[in-house]
Sequence to fold (105 residues):
Amino acid sequence: MLKLLFYSILLGLSVGIAHAADPFPQGDAVIGKAMVEKNCIACHASRFGGDGSEIYTREDHRVKSPPALIAQIRSCNTNLGLKWFEDEELHVASYLNKTYYKFEK
Fold:
């Protein structure tokens, strides 16, 4: 009986974990972090002070969903002429999501 209960709980937890899936599974957060450090922090710091992370954590931040995060990254990519490919945008999205936004799929 205890075994059955244990397996039921384990199954429930695994379903919950699958439900909380990463919205950017193709992105590599390690690569994204390096890209953000190289291309984003100086601009964000000049606009928001400190290390620039307030752009992600301020109460009135614009990004409220995974699609909005990708849209904002694409906007910065275009406006700054970074010429990132889609996979590079996903790396940045993965890093920002894991570090600041915590969106689920």
